[in-house]
């Protein structure tokens, strides 16, 4: 196998399995190449990734060691993506009765989910996340995309308990619309003392995210972060302080049909 072909195959394998430790021995056997040659190839790939700002390669020494790809997204690409989303979401036709903003179609686009998930994975890559937690339904695709780039499972909190999920923890909470709602999570879904990243599509007052944090106390889990696709600017005081939002919904005027969506400052 020519070196150019081997580098392409190596790169493809790494990019398709982010945050997964890959054995150098197994890759050397598969590519019918010496480990020393692979090490030189990986050095080239590492330099290109760092130069482009697209992530890094981490190596682990020893018999059980290997290499893994830690995804990253160049700051300019992240900034361009958020600006693109801001422009897309200011279409007056997106205004719903009550001053809500329709974003379901955007969160159904694979390219949007892929880039948003990669941004969240990049932001929380150093947090040793073991599970990505979300609540049904619209946040699920975004959570799955994030979990893919972190190479961890996705756990979905249900709005009500299902018999097919066995014993569960259920809690009542006050939503952003001041209604009392219920959420439930199967005991088998999440091992105790796990490190959890919460991902959701939208936040107003933060009631749902706060409820998920409270639920994690029942599992003795450590919530390492909260990421949302969009948060409203009002109310300014949320039910939780520490969270990351990619976009901020600053204004929705039903009368003038004006919408103002502001990108977050995570790329600065």
Task: Please outline the helices and strands.
Elements: H1 3-16, E1 22-23, H2 24-31, H3 35-52, E2 55-60, E3 66-71, H4 75-88, E4 95-96, E5 100-101, H5 110-123, E6 131-135, H6 140-150, E7 154-157, E8 168-174, E9 180-186, E10 195-203, H7 207-218, E11 222-232, E12 244-253, E13 258-263
Parallel strand pairs: 6-7, 6-10, 10-11, 11-12
Antiparallel strand pairs: 1-3, 2-3, 4-5, 8-9, 12-13
Helix pairs in contact: 1-3, 5-6
Provide a descriptive summary of the structure in words.
The chain has two domains: 3-71, Arc Repressor Mutant, subunit A (Orthogonal Bundle); 75-263, 3-Layer(aba) Sandwich (Rossmann fold), CATH 3.40.50. It has helices spanning 3-16, 24-31, 35-52, 75-88, 110-123, 140-150, 207-218; strands at 22-23, 55-60, 66-71, 95-96, 100-101, 131-135, 154-157, 168-174, 180-186, 195-203, 222-232, 244-253, 258-263. With 268 residues, it is an alpha/beta fold. Strands 7-6-10-11-12-13 form a six-stranded mixed sheet, sandwiched between helices. A three-stranded antiparallel sheet has the order 1-3-2. Strands 4-5 form a two-stranded antiparallel ribbon. Helix 1 (3-16) packs across helix 3 and helix 5 packs across helix 6 (140-150). Strand 8 and strand 9 (180-186) form a beta hairpin.
């Amino acid at each position: 196998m020519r070196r150019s072909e081997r580098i392409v195959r190596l790169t493809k394998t790494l990019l398709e399995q982010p945050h997964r430790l890959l054995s150098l021995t197994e890759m050397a056997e598969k590519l019918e190449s010496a480990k020393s040659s692979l090490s030189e190839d990986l050095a080239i790939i590492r330099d290109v990734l760092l130069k482009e700002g697209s992530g890094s390669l981490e190596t682990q020494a020893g018999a059980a060691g290997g290499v893994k790809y830690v995804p990253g997204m160049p700051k300019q690409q992240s900034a361009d993506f958020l600006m693109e989303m801001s422009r897309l979401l200011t279409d007056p036709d997106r205004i719903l009765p009550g001053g809500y903003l329709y974003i379901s179609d955007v969160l159904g686009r694979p390219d949007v989910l892929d880039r948003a998930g990669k941004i969240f994975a990049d932001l929380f890559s150093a947090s040793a996340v073991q599970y990505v937690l979300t609540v049904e339904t619209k946040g699920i695709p975004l959570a799955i995309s994030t979990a893919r780039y972190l190479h961890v499972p996705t756990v979905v909190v249900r709005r009500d308990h299902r018999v097919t999920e066995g014993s569960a923890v259920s809690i009542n909470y006050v939503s952003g619309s001041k209604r009392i709602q219920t959420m439930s999570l199967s005991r088998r879904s999440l091992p105790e003392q796990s490190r959890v990243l919460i991902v959701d599509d939208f936040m107003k007052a933060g009631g749902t995210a706060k409820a998920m944090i409270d639920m994690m106390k029942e599992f003795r889990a450590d919530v390492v972060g909260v990421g949302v696709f969009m948060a409203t600017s009002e109310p300014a005081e949320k039910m939780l302080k520490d969270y990351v939002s990619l976009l901020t919904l600053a204004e929705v005027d039903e009368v003038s049909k004006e919408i103002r969506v502001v990108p977050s400052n995570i790329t600065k």
